[in-house]
Amino acid sequence: MKKFFPLVIISMLLLNGCSYVQKWNPWAEDELEAKVQEANVNLFLWQASLDKLGFMPISEKNFAKGIIITDWYRESSNAKEQFKLEVRILSKELRTDGVQVKGQSRKKVNGKWQVSEMSVQTEQIIELSILKRARVLYQKSFNQ
Description:
This protein is of the alpha+beta class.
């Protein structure tokens, strides 16, 4: 019985640690690769969006849903206009219609903020900027 007890304890510890030990398994699927496969988001568009919005404070980012939402941003501390963006990655492929940008601007008038939708042209310029960056990232992936 004395020899059986340590064997049971060791067996329990080994079985309990199987999920932890799986992280060291070289044949186990990489976590990032698994996330990329299950998400309907193009990795280049995602990274390009983060790169282009890097100067703005980000309030929410969800890779699985392909959503990045910024907080209000102003160019200087005493600016009377602020901007907020929502970027959606709509495709798993690198396509021109794979990214959508919606923006809002707000101006301070008589001490109160007035919110309005950003112009379609401005949203398209931001989308084009993200697409150009995604193309560069895609091209760099072949050079590595």
